[in-house]
Design a protein that fits this description.
The protein contains 15 helices and ten strands. By secondary structure, it is α/β, with parallel strands linked by helices. The strands form three sheets. A six-stranded parallel beta sheet has the order 5-10-9-6-8-7, sandwiched between helices. Strands 1-2 form a two-stranded parallel sheet.
Length: 361
């Protein structure tokens, strides 16, 4: 059995993961393929490893205690962290993983050019009021002692801030896309998270764009990819990072713009690789990756946090010697309460590893 994009079976409770496990149960040879087998935290690896080599990775509990920084809470054990990453990297290489980075096997592969573009909000006061409301809510609940229910509600509130920032910068996003289309003849892939944001952009640029989100499936999805790649007038591809960030290659396209950031750095790396490669009949094309970030909002902090988090994932997969917290909720919570404190936490991993794949100039 060959399981392509095997990171999709990391959740052992998902029906698709259970089905793959059942399929592989009596199969002597199982191969998993993925450029980013680890997209969020080491905990994700166990179920993939268990399917491929169940005799070497029989117990989730043992794996979690060795590599997932176990932490006991009033509601049970938490395994969302990372620990012993050097040991994990060596074990993966010795038991199950053959990993080749693009820079190692494609000597002529050009570097990705990452460009952060700060955008103004259409109503900065509305965003500030929302942040003030969040801070008040956090202070009332004693930030260091949040219950599980509080944390869930906190994630909802931060999700609201994230959507609000994206919505309030949308006029500037549209203006930037207009300028791109006017001053260039190249095509552009736009990635975002929320259906309303993506559909608003598609409506604004309907004559020159296609849309792929979770609701666009089957032949409609294939037609959208084909139209974007083969039709000269269709210069914009607007897609959900998760739904359209894997499984296809935009040969000849070299521009991506993220108008919203996902919670996982692995999703960014996967989406970037739609345009990062060597194309037949062409010299290596520099990939330009634009991050359209709302100024003075949580988006700026989230970009730094994702960079630090990617460094931790690199330590497990590529042996880079670094470590940082993986809890985006806690880091963002602190950033909204105390900006200076969060800056100190993020700078340390940045100093320890200058080669992160998500390093932002």
């Amino acid at each position: 059995v060959i399981a392509d994009e095997c990171h999709m079976i990391s959740n052992r409770k998902a029906r698709s993961s259970k089905s793959v496990k059942q399929l592989c149960r009596q199969i002597p040879y199982v191969i998993g393929l993925s450029g980013t087998p680890l997209t969020n935290r080491p905990k994700e690896l166990w179920h993939i490893l268990h399917i491929i080599r169940p005799e070497l990775y029989p117990s989730a509990w043992t794996f979690y205690f060795d590599f997932c920084k176990p932490r006991r809470t009033p509601w049970g054990w938490n395994f969302d962290g990372a620990s012993n990453l050097g040991k994990l990297h060596k074990r993966l290489l010795s038991s199950v993983m053959i990993r080749r980075l693009k820079r190692d096997v494609l000597a002529d592969l050009p570097a990705k050019q990452r460009i952060v573009l700060p955008l103004d909000l259409s109503d900065a006061k509305e965003y500030r009021d929302a942040v003030t409301d969040f801070r008040g809510w956090m202070i009332e609940r004693s930030p260091g002692k949040l219950t599980g229910t509080d944390r869930a509600e906190g994630l909802v509130k931060m999700g609201h801030l994230k959507r609000l920032a994206a919505t309030l910068k949308l006029p500037m996003v549209e203006e930037w896309v207009d300028n791109f289309l006017e001053n260039s003849e190249e095509k552009l892939i736009i990635f975002g998270e929320h259906r309303k944001i993506l559909r608003t952009l598609h409506k604004r640029f309907k004559e020159s764009s296609v849309l792929v989100d979770g609701s666009v499936t089957g032949k409609h999805r294939k037609l959208a990819f084909h139209k974007f790649l083969k039709t000269k007038a269709t210069r914009l591809f607007i897609g959900n990072t998760k739904a359209a960030g894997v499984g296809w290659s935009a040969s000849g396209v070299c521009n991506i713009a993220f108008v919203e950031l996902p919670w996982s750095p692995g999703l960014i790396v996967q989406a970037e690789d739609r345009v990062h490669g060597l194309f037949r009949g062409q010299e290596g094309i520099h990939s330009s990756i634009y991050f359209l970030v709302a100024k003075n909002t949580m988006e700026e902090k989230l970009l730094k946090i994702l960079q630090a988090k990617q460094q931790t994932l690199d330590a497990a997969l590529d042996g880079n010697n670094t470590a940082s917290t993986l809890n985006v909720f806690d880091l963002l919570k602190e950033s909204l309460l105390n900006d200076r404190e969060i800056d100190d936490k993020i700078r340390e991993p940045e100093r320890s590893n200058k080669r992160s794949r998500l390093s932002i100039p």
